[in-house]
Amino acid sequence: MEQSAEVLSKRARLDDExxxxxxxxxxxxxxxxxxxxxxxxxQRHLLDFDFEKLCSVTLSNINVYACLVCGRxxxxxxxxxxxHLHSLEVSHHIFINLHDQRVFCLPDNYEVIDASLMDIKxxxxxxxxxxxxxxxxANTQPSRALDGTKYLPGCIGLNNIKYTDYVNVVIxxxxxxxxxxxxxxxxxxxxxxxxxxxLRGLLTKRFAELVRKIWNPRNFKGQVSPHEFLQAIxxxxxxxxKIGEQSDPANLLAWLLETxxxxxxxxxxxxxxxxxxxxxxxxxxxxxEPGPGIGKTIVFKDFPNKIEIKxxxxxxxxxxxxxxxxxxxxxxxxxxxxxxxxxxxxxxxTFQDTPEKRFRHRLRSLPKYLVLHxxxxxxxxxFVERNPTIVxxxxxNLNMAPYLIQDPLAGGKGNPPMKYNLLATICHEGEPxxxxxxxxxxxxxxxLNSWFEIQDxxxxxxxxxxxxxxxxxxxxxxxxxx
Length: 482
Prior knowledge:
By secondary structure, the chain is an alpha+beta fold. Strands 17, 21, 25, 26, 27, 28, 29 and 30 form an 8-stranded mixed sheet that branches. A 6-stranded mixed sheet has the order 3-8-7-6-4-5, covered by helices on one side. Strands 16-13-20-19 form a 4-stranded antiparallel sheet, with no helix packed on it. The protein is elongated and about 90 Å long.
C-alpha cells in the first residue's frame, strides 16, 4: 500500500526526459550540484522572458527551457530533445525551466543550485513580500537596467508591437489602481503540471505576470513587452482585439474588466470579485413616456413610468457637439467645458430627451475607483468623427456627493463630501481613423507627487497644468477615505 502511494506521488510531473505531455510512473532522481563550470557563459543581456513560452523549433509550450547563453527557447532536456541537441551543436550548456525556474546543465543533465542564479529566476517570475507591496507607492528611487538605463518601477515603458498603443494605455492605467495591483501581484492560480493549456484563468494569469514585471525593481531591461498578455487577449476575445489592428480603449476596458471578473469568480467562487470591489457603482434611471401632446409638440408625463437601478463599472459622459464654423483667422474653434457641466447628467434634475422617451439619472452608490469616459467618437455609415472639446477637470478633491441620492439618515443636511483624486488619464491625439491617431496617458507617481506622460516606450515628466488641458478620453479617480 505504501509502495502504491509512492508510485502515485511520482505521477504528477511531465516527462522532462522526452519533452512530451506523458506521465511517468517512476522518474529517476536528477543529480544536483552547487558547482558548474559553465555559469560564466551566461549572457544576461540576451535574456528576455516577456515573450510567449514556446519552443523556437517545435512551437510547443510544454516543458520549455530557455538557453541562458543565447536566450532562445527549446523543448525538453532529455536525450534527443531540442534543448539537448542545442547544447551539443553550439556548446550552450545552461538552461532554465520556464515553468518551475529550475536550472540544468546539458547534456550532462544535472540541476545547478547556485545563489548567482537568483536574479535570473526573479526576472522570470518576480515574487513580492507583503512588506514590499506595501512600499510600492512610497518608492522614490529609480532602478537601473543592465544597459545602465534608469527607470521608475511602475512607470516603465511598454513595447508597441503593432498598433497596440490602445492596449498599453489600459494596462498602464489599471496598474495605477492600488487595490487591483496588489491583488494581481499576490494572485496565484493553483493548477496541476499538466494544466498548461487551460483557458479558464488565462487572462488573469497573464495580467498578473505582466503587473509583476511592470513593478519589478530588478528588471534586466528598461522596458517590458506585453506580448503574452496580448496573445491572451486575442485568444479570449476571439480576435475582437488583436495585434495589428487599433481599437477603442474604452471597449477594451469594458471587455477586460468583465472577463477578469468572470475568471476570478469562476476560479475563486462566489459572485463578487476584486473588479466589482474596485469599480462597481449603481445608477438610478427614471424613464418618462410621452403623454398626449398638442399638435406635433411632445409632452412627457410628470411621473416616471419606470425606475430601474443599473450597475456600472465606468460612467459614460456625452460632450456637447463641436462648432461647425471656423473663427475669423480660418482656424477651427476648440470649445472648452467643465467636468461639472458634463456631470450634470447625474444631478437628478437634468433630463435627457429622445424622440421617444425622457430620462433622468441619479447615482445611488459610487465605487472606490471612479472611471469617467467621454464619448469623443461618433460613427456613421461613412466615417468616424472625433469631438475635440477640452474638458477641464480637477486633479484633486473632485466632490461627487452632489450627484448621489441623499442619504435618508442625513436629516436633510445633504450628503457628506465624497472626494476623489486623479490617478491617470488616457488621451487621444490625431485622426480618429484606426491606425492614424495615437493613444497616450498621464499617470501620477504618488511618492514623487509628479505627473508623467507615457506613450509606449517614451516617458517624460509633465506639469500638472498640461494634464488638465489635454484631450482626455478616460479618467481614473481614487476616492479619498477620511
